[in-house]
Amino acid sequence: MIDLSIIIISYNTKKLTLECINSIIRNTHGISYEIIMVDNASDDGSVKAVEKLSLKFPIRVISNSENVGFGQGNNQGMKIEKGRYILLLNTDTLIKGNLLCEMVNWMDKNKEVGISSCALKNKDGSIQGTGGYFPTLFRVFAWMTFLEDLPGIDYIIKPFHPMHGQSPFYKAEGFFKKTSERDWITGAYLLMRKEVVNDIGYFDHDYFMYTEEVDYCFRAKEKGWKVWYLPKWSIIHYGGASSTKEFPILSEFRGIKTFYKKHMTSWEFWVLRLLLKLGSLLRIFVLGILKGSEAVKTYAKAFQIA
């Protein structure tokens, strides 16, 4: 068995995919690894380009005839991987230094941790938000009413996703400079033990993209595994390379509804829907003023989805 299986989902991101894979090859030493690229019906030559690389490096390619999404694509990779650890890695990322080896070594020493992630950074070195805490109704209320965006509120209310990127008021960078246990982490960089997959299985097919990692970490924690955020290490994450601006917003609204339908009571599901509709209306007003008609159109669609 090798140390690490790295699963990358590709969708029309040929240049970024090659840069990501080359950053892994260039920087990773001291562990055995394989790269599994699952392509979701790209038409930009991604498959041929990566197959060419696979002649020299430990890369396997799965080429889908349709876009099956993030979760199902990762499931395909997890069903053929050979590693003690599995890393789900976005194509729009760059590995810095030998962090893959170092994080595997950290996981080897912290047996109770089933899932971990590093810091995600923009190209200029500024910190991105990654992960957070499970979306209880109170946390969803704080998210939908912009309450979680107020300075210092993250010390009082553990946020669903701090520094989400939609706040016109506050960027909680300090929150992401601290090593801490979290409820869930973002699928852009998700390192897990093979035993976690053995315990809880694969990603739920009900999610296409966004919120499936919340569901997965929820199921892992139900089995007693811990989830840790480790900003000692970091990668570059460009973000949003294969989606439109409205896609992640609408997908998250759909995803959190699916999460509640699966894991919460029926009355909590209906309260959630009311909160999502309230949040959509507030964003139509507030973000419509700050960002214009595009925000209005996006959150009008979100209101219908909620």
Provide a descriptive summary of the structure in words.
The chain has 306 residues and is an alpha/beta fold. It has a single domain, classed as Spore Coat Polysaccharide Biosynthesis Protein SpsA, Chain A. 41% of the residues lie in helices and 20% in strands. Strands 1, 2, 3, 4, 5, 6, 7, 8 and 9 form a nine-stranded mixed beta sheet that branches. Helix 1 packs parallel to helix 2 (46-53), helix 8 (246-263) packs antiparallel against helix 9 and helix 9 runs antiparallel to helix 10 (293-305). It is globular, with a radius of gyration of 19 Å.
Please give a quick description of this structure.
With 306 residues, the chain is α/β, with parallel strands linked by helices. 41% of the residues lie in helices and 20% in strands. The longest helix has 26 residues, at 266-291.
Largest sheet: 9 strands, mixed
Question: Which bin fits the share of residues in helices?
Answer: 40-55%
Strand content: 15-25%
Order of helices and strands: EHEHEHEEHEHEEHHEHHH
| End-to-end separation | 45 Å
Tally of domains:
1
Second CATH tier, the architecture: Alpha-Beta Complex
What is the CA-based Rg, rounded? 19 Å
Number of helices: 10
Q: Say which CATH homologous superfamily is assigned.
A: Spore Coat Polysaccharide Biosynthesis Protein SpsA, Chain A
User: What structural class is derived from the secondary structure elements?
Assistant: alpha/beta
**Poorly predicted parts:** 164-170
The number of distinct β-strands equals 9
* Bulk shape: globular
What number is the mean pLDDT?
Answer: 89
